[in-house]
Design brief:
Rossmann fold; 196 residues; alpha/beta; single chain
Length: 196
């Protein structure tokens, strides 16, 4: 069984969707991987509680304890690799992990580092994607699963899902429709990547 490690900063709703996919009873629909650990850069991240309730190992590497990004990323990589017997998890999955990673960290996990972004990339990289889509007058918005590269939100696209922008939408109402699609496409994209 392949091991994956999930990185979070908040509630971990995408992490929870991935854990559900890894534990499905139907073997053909199962993720074919084990969530070896959930690691957060924030000690109070709500997703840590959910992971613990599911019997998944958790760890905190608090970014505020490090003076430089490189030192944080080095400690984070050590924590990740510690949760795989071979020191090389099949995938490192960013699920609402709100830190920009250094090129050295990205290179260490090249081809094994995956992210989900709440826009139809290449549109609206970075933050505040839903409000920016509304301000631009978009008729559709969505989410993108992509491999992580050193350039922010610019790696090869693995999956996308679109949702309509409805009259009267707010950033919050649009976000709630987009996140339901995130929970659908992220586990599927991870499964496809694990299958090669």
């Amino acid at each position: 069984m392949k091991n994956i490690v999930i990185l979070i900063s908040g509630t971990g709703s995408n992490m929870a969707a991935i854990v559900r996919a890894a534990r499905r009873e139907n073997w053909e629909q199962r993720l074919q991987a084990r969530v070896a650990a959930v690691i957060s850069n924030r000690p109070q991240a709500g997703g840590l509680v959910h992971a613990q309730e599911q019997g998944i190992a958790t760890e905190v590497v608090d970014h505020r304890s490090f003076g430089e990004r490189e030192a944080f990323d080095q400690a984070l990589a050590q924590a990740i690799d510690r949760h795989d017997p071979g020191g090389r998890p099949a995938l490192v999955v960013l699920a609402g992990f709100m830190r920009v990673l250094t090129p050295g960290f990205v290179a260490h996990y090249e081809g094994r580092l995956v992210n989900i972004h709440p826009s139809l990339l290449p549109a609206f990289t970075g933050l505040h994607t839903h409000q920016r889509a509304l301000d631009a007058g978009c008729r559709v918005a969505g989410a993108t699963v992509h491999l992580v590269t050193a350039e922010l939100d610019n790696g090869p696209i693995l999956a996308q899902a679109a949702v309509p922008v409805l009259p009267g939408d707010t950033a919050d109402s649009l976000a709630s429709r987009v996140v339901t699609q995130e929970h659908r496409i992220y586990p599927a994209a991870i499964a496809a990547l694990l299958r090669g």
